[in-house]
Amino acid sequence: MNLETLRNKEGFICDMDGVIYHGNRLLPGVHALIDWFKAEKKKFLFLTNSSERSPRELSEKLARLGIEVGARHFYTSAQATASFLASQRPGGSAYVIGEAGLINALYEAGFSMNEVSPDYVVVGETRSYSYEKIERAVILVQNGAKLIGTNPDLTDSMGKGIVPATGALIAPIEMATGIKAYFLGKPNPLMMRHGRKMLGCTRKQTAIIGDRMETDIIAGIHSGMDTVLVLSGVTAEADLEKYAYHPKYVLPGVGNLPPV
After folding, report:
1. How far apart are CA 111 and CA 107, in angstroms?
2. Which domains does the chain have, with CATH numbers?
3. pLDDT (tens digit per residue) in 105-135
4. What is the model's pTM?
């Protein structure tokens, strides 16, 4: 592994949970990584499949953990979803099963909330999941609303063990309607392309850092960027032999990226 080639990249797209933190615990080496990004004037973006929080809220969370990074350095699956839906149906409407980050992103994209005849049923991470919401979503999809998921992740760690994520929450609606959702988050290359455009870097100038083979690494491969797997999250080194594809770089954590 030639880390100098990696270190010479102009732009870095970083996943968050399992890479930067676990729940509310900052992972080792993050301070060194951010200091290096700033000192070397690297372009960097935290790109997360979570749709719960807005970029401002994510910036505030890192500030509480001792990392000062402005909101412009964040891009979420909620924003990717809202941007895509606005391009498909400007001024459309949605029935949302999700948190404020997703609802606000849709409002900002010109969408209205609609529980009767929406264009889309949109599902993201939420703690207010209920049978009534599933029932409503199933009826709306059967009546013609298109089913959208902010990301396909089945689980999340949230710093307190494994909990269901969007892929698991949307599954009952898919099964009851027989309709598969369209997911906008990683590994959908649309999200990666938009993130790279935000950085203003070419594919060759950019690397993606993540802890999940099924989302971060395959997304980078599909988008033509060099991939960095960190072993501080979901994927263990022993897991790599299961996959038909491999990351270009494997590091114990993000603290191994800056030169010592």
Report:
1. 5
2. 3-49+186-256 (3.40.50.1000), 79-183 (3.40.50.1000)
3. 999 999 999 999 999 999 999 999 999 999 9
4. 0.91
Annotated catalytic residue 211: no
Question: From CA 238, how far away is CA 95, in angstroms rounded?
Answer: 41
Query: Is 15 in the active site?
Result: yes
- Annotated catalytic residue within 15, 156, 211, 216: 15
Catalytic residue among 17, 156, 211, 226, which?
17
